[in-house]
Amino acid sequence: MRYNERELLCLARQPAEKAAEILMRVPKKGSGLKRRLVKLVVNFLFYFRTDEAEPIGALLLEHCRITKEEENVFSISFIEEPERKYCFECDSEEQCQEWIEALKRASYEFMRRSLIFYRNEIQKMTGKDPLEQYGISEEARFQLATRKQ
Amino acid sequence: MKLNERSVAHYATCDSPADHAGFLRQRVERHHHHGHHATSYQRRWFVLKGNLLFYFEERDSREPLGLVVLEGCTVELCEAAEEFAFAIRFDDAGAKACVLVADGQAAMEAWVKALSRASFDYMRLVVRELEKQLEEACKSLAACRKSPRRSGSGRKRHLSNPALGPVQEKPAALENGYCTWGSGGEPATPRCAEPASPAPSLPLPESPVSPETACFSKLHNWYGQEIALLRREWLQRQHRGHL
């Protein structure tokens, strides 16, 4: 699958939502925990060798599951392959919880659900659609029901 | 650079709804020897989901041919040789623009609008605005009802909290962003309408604190001023994203 790698590399250089050096293990046979610079930018998690400017890889955080594993450890896996886990061992339980919270909220789909929820609640409470004044109430991306293509 | 391509492809083809879809012709440049290059337009099926634009060989293809990440880009009309052409230009200097051609004026306008609102930041902006509005609506409702219980518990509510109780029985694994659109994937909610429950204290430090208002009409007025300002900013952003 082709993708605009150059733009993704550019994105990796943007200010991060969250960044830290964390021990990471990829779901590849025989791979161990390696210290990586892990950086969350929009809905991508980039990971770098600690002394390199360009990331080794990126994970798109859509349709993923963030799981608390043992102490200080959490994992990221994807809906269609739940056994393939990217594992992260933090320096502390607190850091681990912070990352879990941040990653759970990092997806575009999560934001969309939040928006639809807020829109609904505001409409229930005030009787008005909060998106109307911005002229975007008909935008497909803000609709609750399944949209036609 | 590695990418979790299998998962990305799965996201592209799964049944979560697309924000826009349709046929577009994509400009393709092929470089031959002696510096000679040929430009052609390939008709492909495009699917926009969030900040990702996928393209497929055919409408019913099982896997995407490719993906355009829509961050750090602007969408503009394009004076190409083709009518109804528009371009996705990247902030990164020297990057090649992605030139696309729609079937007609209406299709072109719909695509440009959809793509210029596709960035993560735009969605985040709208979410934050609505979060504020909800907070204000809750406060004004509480004020109007002159509830004896004040919203002072200071308990943080995250969107992922499924219960009102003090201890949440969360399953060990919570799925992030997986929408089961068939069964309704709305996060469970604190009910702002009940005077007994505190207004949600939303975890955004940069939300401005609304002025102390006992009177609904004052709150309404202040609210209206902020909306006018935000609307201006939004129109500017839209304008930038368009032509």
Automatic annotation (TrEMBL), chain A:
Cellular compartments per GO CC: cytosol; early endosome; recycling endosome; trans-Golgi network
InterPro entries with a match to the protein in the record: Boi1/Boi2-like (IPR045188), PH-like_dom_sf (IPR011993), PH_domain (IPR001849)
A Gene Ontology BP annotation from the UniProt entry: receptor recycling
A Pfam family it matches: PH
CDD domains reported in the protein's UniProt record: PH_PLEKHJ1
PH domain boundaries: 15-108
PANTHER family membership: PLECKSTRIN HOMOLOGY DOMAIN-CONTAINING FAMILY J MEMBER 1, SESQUIPEDALIAN
Name recorded for this polypeptide: Pleckstrin homology domain-containing family J member 1
Source organism of this protein record: Nothoprocta perdicaria (Chilean tinamou)
Automatic annotation (TrEMBL), chain B:
Biased composition (Basic residues): 146-159
GO biological process, one term: endosome organization
Keywords: Cytoplasmic vesicle, Endosome, Golgi apparatus, Phosphoprotein
SMART domains the record matches: PH
Predominant place of localization: other
UniProt cross-references to Pfam families, sorted A to Z: PH (PF00169)
Record domain PH: where: 17-120
Entry GO CC: clathrin-coated vesicle; cytosol; early endosome; recycling endosome; trans-Golgi network
Region (Disordered), start-end ranges: 146-167
Location relative to the cell: Early endosome; Recycling endosome; Golgi apparatus, trans-Golgi network; Cytoplasmic vesicle, Clathrin-coated vesicle
InterPro entries, alphabetized: Boi1/Boi2-like, PH-like_dom_sf, PH_domain
Function: Plays a role in endocytic trafficking. Required for receptor recycling from endosomes, both to the trans-Golgi network and the plasma membrane.
Family of the protein in this entry: Belongs to the sesquipedalian family.
Protein name: Sesquipedalian
Species annotation: Nothoprocta perdicaria (Chilean tinamou)
